[in-house]
Structures are given as C-alpha cells and as structure tokens.
C-alpha cells in the first residue's frame, strides 16, 4: 500500500480570509465531458431547487460534469473519483492510502502477473441482485475492451468462485492496484448499451433520474453495506461555473464550483472554500525536429523550435511561475516544477529556481539564438524562436495561463502565439505543437505513460512528445515492476533526475510544468464536509460524501 503522509497537507482546506459570509481540463469539468448549461433554473424549468435539510443541490462541474455517455464506469464515469452509484474494489482515504471497499483482501503471484482479490459476500445491487465475482470480472473485461478506461495492462479477469476474482496481466505492473480503486463495478445481468442512462450499482446512492442538459438526481441507498450518507437526496445541476456562482447567490444551490476569479467574493450565508490539489498544468514540448515525418493518420511530427533543448530549458527557468499563478489563477494555485512535486515519487532534487531571466538569455545565446533584425524575437539559422501554444477552448484557466506565459516568454525573446482549439483539433496538432494539459493522479503509472518511450499512444496523449531516453526507460521499468515501495519511489525519482539525466528541466526539459491549481467552491455555511480527499485532476469533491452533513445553526 502506498502511504501519502507527506502530502496530507495537499487536501487541507483553505478558507478565504474575510469570506465567512476550474476549472479543470475543460473549464467546467474533465476533458471528456460536456460543459453544462449557461442558464439559471427558472420557474418553468424541470430543475429541482427546493430541498430539505438532508437534501443537497450541487452544481459541481469538476465531479465529471454531465457525462456524455451517462453514468457508466465502463465509459469513464467516476474513474479515479467517487462514482456515487457504483462501488469499487478499493478506495483511497483522505491521506491517499488504499483501503478496502468491496475487496476484503488480495494477493499477487511471485511473478507479478496474477492478482487474486476476495470480495464481500453481503453486497447487493440496487435491484436486489447479489454482487458477485462474476460482476467484477465482467466489469473489468468489458472496460478493458472499451475506450473509456485505460486497462491495457489487463489480459483478462476470471471469477474463481462467487467471491474470488483473478486478474491476469500482460505486464507485471505493481501499480495495477490503482486500477482496482478506479473502476466502479456494474451488474452483468443489467448491463447493456443504455446502461449509462439508467445505471444500477451497489454504491451509497441509487440513480433516480437524468434530465439531460439540466440535472441528475440520486437518492441514498437504504441497503448500502457501508456508512449511510447523511444527505438522503443528491441533485447535481449541470451548469458552467459562472452560472453556478449566480445560482448559489440566488439560493438555488447549496454547493457550487466557481472560478478562481471569485475567490474574494462574499455571499451572505455562504462560505468560499479553496482546496489545493495535485492537478498540475503543464505544457508539452515536441522533442523531435520537423523533418516532414507524419503519423499514421497523416499528422505532422516535430517542431524545429521546441526540439532545441536551449528553448525548453530557457523557458523553464526564465518564467516566473508565481507571477502566472497570481495573475492567471488569482493566486489560487501552487508552483509546480516536475508535475509530481507533492507526491512521494516526486524528486526534490529536480526542483529548481525560476524567474532567472538573465540566465535563460545566456542559455539561448550560448546555443546560437540571437535577435538579428531587432524585432524582439530571437533567431537561429533562419528559424524564429516562436511557436503556437494550444489550449482547450472551453478552459478559461488554461487560456489565462497560456496568455500570461506568452507575456513572460517575451522577456526572453521567445514569441508564443496562443490559440484555443477543440480536442478534436488538438488531436491533429499535438505531435508538432505544444499543448497545455492537466494531469494529477495518485497512480504513478501516469509518469510511466508520459515518459516511457514505448508507451506512446496518441489516443490517450501517452508520450505524445515522442520522448526517448534509454536511461529514463530503465528507471521507469524498474519502478513500475518493483514490489518494494521504497525501491519503486526511488526509481520514479531518478527518472526525473539522477544527477546526469532525466525528464525534468535539469535533464531533458521535456515539459514546462507551471502550477497545481486550487479548486474553488461556494457552499452553505452550515455544511460540514469533513476531511476532503486529495484532489486529483478533475477534482473529487464528493470523494468523502459519507462524511458530509449539516451542522446546527
């Protein structure tokens, strides 16, 4: 089990001073979900806005938003966050440590290829049918054959008996345990192509209805095997963050996700809460020069500017991250240098001092970049030090960071042109054009997928920069196959920087990591939401929903 005592503070609640009265990947939600409505609920709307003390109305884009394919774990609903309707084999507590949910124990074969998990014998789906190992095996086999969940490491899952399931892997990755905590279990007998629209699970809440484009309603599961939730009814409203704030001000919602620009707002009867996270914003640097090569889909590969390590290193040390956070994020974030600074597998030796403009200029000059025509932009061998930076057009905070970075880069003589695109458009350009992404997970497999040379998979943006460093590869393979936590963490760290090479700025400077963002919420003053779980990419505000309650006035 991976302990995360060192980052307990990550999930600490920071109440904004004097305020007692995004947004992630897509601006309101995760990359794969829709943005939600711009309109407030009105008198003739179907949206429910009246509730009792044990009912909760929330406009929470970061809890998956409105899922395009419904509330289906097979297609990504609840992946690495509380799925509400479904149960998972394992969960993670507020410290990030693994704890049992459906599972009672597990074992791993000596060669690391076979995992055996025992599950509870007292769990029923919401329709009264017992949950068995067949449902677990069905869920994982089906998910492995879908595009919604990355289970490429899984060969197959088999039910050995009603309460024992065996997973066979095609690679002995010890991080597979994190997959067992990420996927909600669906019932084999009730699963079909429309499951996401009327899901059945065994989780703390039962699905009631989904008014597409407006809301989804859930009720507490009276047969839940775990702690019973205080809130008996949960209504999720699908709103963009600006609209959600207006709804909170008007008393239509109890909890709403809001933009960082509203951090200092005051609303009677409500409090604004800022949750720090491990959700990092970083920019890819295509590592290869543009030689005319194309992907199998005909997309251009390589960039003649970002393939120069001097450009990558100069930007990393020359920009001032705190300036970007103070401006673009309204101070709601923390500096990030490697993408995993706060995690046990982050390497403190890879962290560096930024805002060193003169040193960055020297790096560029030593590499042959100079401004020969006095236009403020450096050149080298006829190539201007300029490139386009793409951001998802629905992400306000990514746009703000991109624009702010462009201003910082001008001080170095580098011209960054900022463009917002759809994800479909970004897919065609990501091999040749820097993109600002969001990543943050308690699963170190994320590092492996980003930097291991053979993990390239453009469908999931795995190693989209085509990075290839054999020394780093060796560290990553050792880490992901090690059964010893300390050995694994040491090798994850060495992959970033071993004193000679690595993926961090001190080595190959593969990415430009900027900040981890804070998630902002406005909520009724009388809501006690316990100890939040560590907030990953996309946030997990309901990760500890069983702790939530109202306090007496």
Task: Tag the structure with descriptive keywords.
26 strands; single chain; four-stranded antiparallel β-sheet; 553 residues
Explain the layout of strands and helices.
Layout: E1 13-15, E2 33-34, E3 55-59, E4 66-67, E5 90-92, E6 98-100, E7 103-108, E8 114-119, H1 133-144, E9 154-161, E10 164-169, H2 176-179, E11 205-211, E12 215-220, E13 233-237, H3 241-249, E14 255-258, E15 270-275, E16 280-284, H4 309-318, H5 321-328, E17 333-335, H6 357-366, E18 379-380, E19 383-384, E20 386-392, H7 396-410, E21 415-421, H8 423-429, E22 436-439, H9 445-451, H10 470-481, H11 485-496, E23 511-517, E24 519-524, E25 527-528, E26 549-550
Parallel strand pairs: 3-13, 3-14, 20-21
Antiparallel strand pairs: 1-15, 2-4, 5-6, 7-8, 8-10, 9-10, 11-12, 12-13, 14-24, 15-24, 16-22, 16-23, 17-23, 18-19, 25-26
Helix pairs in contact: 4-6, 5-7, 9-10, 10-11
């Amino acid at each position: 089990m991976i302990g995360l005592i060192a980052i307990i503070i990550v999930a600490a609640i920071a109440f904004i001073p004097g305020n007692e009265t995004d947004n992630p990947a897509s601006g309101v939600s995760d990359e794969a979900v829709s943005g939600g409505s711009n309109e407030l609920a009105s008198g003739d709307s179907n949206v429910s806005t009246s509730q009792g003390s044990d009912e909760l109305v929330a406009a929470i884009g970061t809890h998956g938003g409105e899922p395009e394919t419904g509330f289906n774990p097979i297609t990504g609903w609840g992946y690495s966050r509380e799925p509400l309707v479904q149960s998972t084999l394992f969960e993670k507590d507020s410290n990030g440590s693994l704890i049992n949910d459906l599972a009672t124990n597990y074992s791993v074969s000596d060669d690391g290829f076979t995992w055996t998990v025992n599950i509870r014998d007292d769990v029923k789906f919401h329709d009264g049918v017992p949950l068995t190992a067949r449902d677990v095996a069905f869920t994982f086999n089906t998910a492995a054959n879908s595009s919604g969940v990355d289970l490429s490491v899984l060969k197959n899952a088999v039910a050995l008996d009603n309460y024992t399931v065996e997973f066979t892997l095609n690679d002995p990755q010890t991080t597979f345990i994190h997959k067992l905590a990420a996927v909600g279990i669906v019932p084999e007998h009730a699963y079909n192509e429309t499951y996401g629209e009327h899901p059945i699970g065994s989780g703390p809440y039962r699905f009631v209805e989904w008014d597409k484009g407006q809301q989804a309603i859930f009720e507490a599961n009276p047969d839940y095997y775990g702690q019973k939730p205080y809130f008996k009814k949960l209504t999720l409203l699908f709103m963009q963050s600006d609209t959600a704030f207006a709804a909170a001000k008007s008393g239509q919602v109890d909890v709403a996700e809001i933009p960082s620009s509203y951090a200092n707002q005051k609303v009677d009867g409500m409090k604004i809460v800022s949750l720090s996270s491990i959700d990092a914003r970083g920019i890819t640097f295509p590592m290869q020069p543009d030689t005319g090569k194309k992907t199998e889909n005909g997309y251009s590969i390589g960039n003649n500017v970002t393939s120069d390590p001097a450009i990558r290193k100069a930007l990393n040390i020359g920009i001032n991250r705190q300036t970007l956070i103070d401006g673009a994020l309204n101070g709601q974030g923390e500096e990030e240098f490697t993408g995993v600074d706060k995690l046990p597998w982050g390497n403190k030796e890879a962290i560096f001092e930024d805002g060193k403009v003169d040193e960055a200029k020297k790096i560029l000059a030593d590499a042959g970049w100079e401004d020969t025509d006095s236009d403020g932009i450096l050149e080298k061998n006829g190539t201007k030090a300029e490139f386009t930076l793409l951001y998802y057009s629905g992400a306000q905070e990514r746009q703000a960071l991109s624009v702010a970075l462009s201003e910082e880069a001008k001080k170095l003589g580098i011209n960054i042109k900022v463009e917002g695109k759809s994800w479909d458009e970004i897919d065609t350009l990501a091999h040749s054009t820097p993109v600002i992404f969001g990543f943050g997970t308690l699963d170190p497999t994320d590092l492996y997928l980003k930097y291991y040379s053979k993990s390239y998979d453009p469908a999931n943006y795995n190693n989209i920069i085509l990075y290839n460093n054999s020394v780093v590869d060796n560290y990553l393979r050792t880490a992901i196959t090690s059964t010893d936590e300390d050995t694994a963490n040491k090798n994850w760290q060495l992959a970033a920087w071993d004193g000679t090479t690595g993926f961090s700025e001190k080595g190959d400077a593969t990415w430009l990591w900027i900040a981890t963002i804070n998630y902002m919420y406005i909520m009724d003053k009388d809501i006690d939401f316990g100890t939040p779980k560590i907030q990953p990419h996309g946030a997990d505000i309901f990760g500890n929903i069983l702790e939530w309650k109202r306090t007496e006035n």
